[in-house]
């Protein structure tokens, strides 16, 4: 082999057995192969320390993906490829023996009729290792379910949950109370329902709001503390909870869940394992799954209950086009490559109803040149939108659907967020944009215009007029509310942004116990679903912070409902 294995053979005299310590069979999750890597090289942290990144460049061994396995990027007998490149465009990032296949979205393979190479039986199968899946497994385990398998098709766990930056909405939490914030579930439910343009399933909205404070407490009891409370768009009280110091919520929770799953006896997380079919008995009850393992092929797991927690569909271009043809095909996505709507497809094939599938949320502010979304807080803290011609074109704080549509219509389908040091200092998340080299700057607005490719004179005039509106407390052009922050330097910044497919409001039809329902409302025995793969909670538009809240609350309910079924049997 001319790849990594060959190099190890020729350079350090390694044999097959040096890496294949337990024989030549490799498990789908490749845990034993990784143990061989770390046995010689040390763990990820040790490698990160030994190979610091050159200044201003990312260190792939110390990323926000946390403790990922070596084999997610380094392959023994095929070309390697940095997993990062499935989302990021890092021209300088080189991996030894590289040039292989980076993770790209792939449609669900049609393996329905494949003969399973083996079968096994467990109590509970959870499909997907995002927040909803992990929480369902943890709750079921706490209730006494002992034999749980979590299946994750990607080489790393975490899903889109791992990318969430903002926070988790909850009303009436201990942390709000400690800070004297007045809020209650009714206010949160009303905000959510209204934010979703009054078409959501009010019963599910009420569950989201009523369970939210208990979910914050559930996390806290287990060691994940979301004590920072901020106000998000469309919320009538500060209720977006995050970890201390404004850390991003997704990486924090994902690392926590991964550690918990490792510690729990009887919970087996299998990576590189894709569910390709739900197995049903003659009455339609779900009795297990067919799995395609990276190395083991197609096999069957029988289970007393199955929880689908497979996330949304934002990275599946064909499905997005099918359900919402108005979204231009060239539109990028903020979602990880595994977000391909599998749960919706698997569920539908098993008889489930789907709701609100055409409701796909665009987020107006994906950075051009990166998969990173910058949150509304940047605009909340003063940033102004302009187009390439240096003109404002929309009320910056309008909802995501309105601002996205407006950005799409500008020259080149992009626009710029303009801000100064004042906003930079207030919004911690901007650090990532600076680190990724995606911010243009100038000491004057004209200079900024030249550096960013915006008409310099028009830009200066626009901001001058805008500052005047701040003084007057009124925006006659677009009616921006809460117009308080002038742009005064000393430095001015521009980030180029473009709309991206961000979130699927629609999905599997469920009831308040997360039971998956047919189109006419009948529960499918043995099948539960939670998180972004379900529909009905967010209506036509999801408020920021409500999705992580949904994954924890409905994940808990799914774990509880599945445990109830399993332990009774
Ligand atoms: P995911 O976390 O996506 O997990 C699903 C998992 O299932 C994935 O790992 C996937 O690979 C796996 N899977 C899929 N199909 C199969 C299959 N057939 N077999 C096995 N495994 C499978 N929401 C908020 O509330 N607040 C925020 O601040 C926020 N910020 C965000 C920022 C970004 C960049 C993105 C993309 C989303 C953000 N969201 C936010 C939305 C939120 O993160 C997601 O909606 C939520 O995490 C979904 O969680 P989940 O557990 O349902 O699915
Ligand atoms: C942010 C590096 C993998 C999506 C960043 C940043 C860096 C970085 C340096 C900015 C600073 C930070 O928040 O840490 C890397 C490296 C990777 C990797 C080295 C590989 C090991 C990925 C993958 C995805 C992704 C696979 C998509 C699935 C994002 C997103 C952000 C980000 C959404 C913004 C997060 C935030 O603002 O909190 N990454 N990345 N990255 N990356 Fe990655």
Helix and strand topology:
Elements: H1 4-12, H2 16-19, H3 31-41, H4 44-50, E1 119-121, E2 124-127, H5 131-142, E3 148-151, E4 168-169, H6 174-178, H7 185-195, H8 202-222, E5 228-230, E6 240-242, H9 249-263, E7 267-270, E8 273-280, E9 286-293, E10 297-302, E11 305-308, H10 317-323, E12 332-333, H11 342-349, E13 354-355, E14 360-367, H12 377-380, E15 384-386, H13 400-408, E16 415-420, H14 421-426, H15 430-435, E17 440-442, H16 445-452, H17 456-472, E18 492-504, E19 507-508, E20 515-517, E21 523-529, H18 546-568
Parallel strand pairs: 1-10, 2-3, 2-11, 3-7, 11-21, 12-18
Antiparallel strand pairs: 4-6, 5-6, 8-9, 9-10, 13-19, 14-18, 15-16, 16-18, 17-18, 20-21
The protein binds flavin-adenine dinucleotide and protoporphyrin IX containing FE (HEM).
Flavin-adenine dinucleotide binds at residues 127-133, 151-154, 159-161, 163-168, 249, 274-275, 309-311, 334-335, 338-339, 342, 373, 503, 531-533, 544-548, 551.
Low-confidence parts, pLDDT < 50 over ≥5 residues? none
Query: How many distinct beta strands?
Result: 21
Named CATH topology of the largest domain: FAD/NAD(P)-binding domain
What's the end-to-end separation, in Å?
51 Å
Strand order of the largest sheet: 7-3-2-11-21-20
State the fourth-level CATH superfamily of the largest domain: FAD/NAD(P)-binding domain
Mean pLDDT: 94
Largest sheet: 6 strands, mixed
Beta-strand share of residues: 15-25%
Provide the helix percentage: 25-40%
Bound molecules: flavin-adenine dinucleotide, protoporphyrin IX containing FE
CATH C-level class of the largest domain: Alpha Beta
- Please tell me what the overall shape is: globular
Number of domains: 3
Can you name the CATH architecture of the largest domain? 3-Layer(bba) Sandwich
Q: Which structural class matches the secondary elements?
A: alpha/beta
- Give the number of helices: 18
How large is the radius of gyration? 24 Å
């Amino acid at each position: 082999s001319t790849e990594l294995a060959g190099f190890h053979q020729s350079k350090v005299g390694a044999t097959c057995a040096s890496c294949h310590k337990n024989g030549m069979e490799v498990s789908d999750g490749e845990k034993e192969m990784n143990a061989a890597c770390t046995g010689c090289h040390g763990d990820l942290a040790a490698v990160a320390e030994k190979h610091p990144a050159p200044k201003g460049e990312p260190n792939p061994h110390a990323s926000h993906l946390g403790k990922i396995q070596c084999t997610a990027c380094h392959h023994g007998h095929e070309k390697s490829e940095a997993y990062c490149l499935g989302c990021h465009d890092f021209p300088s990032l080189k991996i030894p023996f590289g040039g292989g296949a980076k993770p790209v979205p792939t449609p669900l393979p049609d393996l329905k009729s494949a003969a399973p190479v083996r079968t096994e039986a467990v109590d509970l199968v959870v499909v997907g290792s995002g927040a909803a899946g992990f929480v369902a497994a943890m709750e079921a385990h706490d209730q006494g379910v002992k034999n749980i398998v979590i299946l994750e098709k990607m080489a790393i766990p975490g899903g889109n949950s791992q990318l969430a930056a903002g926070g988790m909405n909850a009303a009436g939490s201990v942390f709000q109370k400690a800070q004297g914030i007045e809020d209650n579930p009714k206010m949160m439910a009303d905000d959510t329902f209204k934010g979703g343009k009054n078409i959501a399933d009010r019963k599910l909205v009420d569950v989201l709001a009523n369970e939210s404070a208990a979910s914050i407490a559930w996390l806290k009891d287990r060691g994940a503390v979301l004590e920072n409370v901020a106000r998000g768009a469309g919320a009538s009280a500060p209720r977006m909870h995050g970890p201390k110091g404004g850390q991003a919520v997704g990486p924090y929770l994902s690392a926590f869940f991964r550690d918990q799953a490792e510690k729990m006896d009887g919970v087996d997380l299998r990576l590189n394992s894709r569910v390709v079919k739900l197995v049903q008995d003659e009455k339609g009850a779900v009795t297990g799954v067919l799995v395609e393992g990276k190395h083991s092929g197609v096999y069957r797991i029988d289970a007393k209950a199955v929880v689908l927690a497979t996330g949304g569909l934002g990275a599946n271009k064909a499905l997005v086009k099918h359900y919402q043809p108005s979204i231009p095909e060239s539109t990028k996505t903020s979602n990880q490559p595994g977000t391909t709507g599998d749960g919706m497809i698997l569920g539908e094939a098993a008889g489930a109803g789907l709701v609100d599938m055409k409701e796909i949320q665009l987020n107006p502010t994906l950075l051009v040149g990166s998969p990173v979304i910058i949150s509304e807080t940047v605009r909340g803290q003063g940033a102004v939108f302009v187009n390439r011609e240096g003109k404002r074109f929309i009320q910056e704080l309008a909802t995501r659907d309105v601002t996205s549509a407006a950005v799409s219509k500008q020259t080149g389908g992009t626009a710029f967020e303009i801000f100064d040091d004042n906003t930079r200092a207030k919004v911690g998340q901007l650090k990532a944009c600076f680190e990724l080299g995606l911010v243009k700057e100038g000491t004057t607005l004209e200079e900024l215009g030249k550096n960013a490719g915006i008409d310099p004179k028009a830009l200066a005039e626009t901001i001058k007029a805008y500052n005047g509106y701040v003084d007057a407390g009124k925006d006659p052009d677009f009616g921006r509310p809460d117009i308080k922050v002038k742009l005064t330097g000393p430095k001015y910044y521009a980030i180029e942004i473009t709309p991206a497919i961000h979130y699927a409001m629609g999905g599997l039809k469920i009831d308040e116990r997360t039971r998956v329902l047919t189109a006419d409302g009948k529960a499918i025995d043995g099948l539960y679903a939670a998180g972004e793969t379900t529909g009905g909670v967010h209506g036509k538009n999801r408020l920021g912070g409500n999705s992580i809240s949904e994954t924890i609350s409905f994940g808990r309910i799914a774990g509880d409902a599945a445990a109830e079924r399993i332990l009774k049997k």
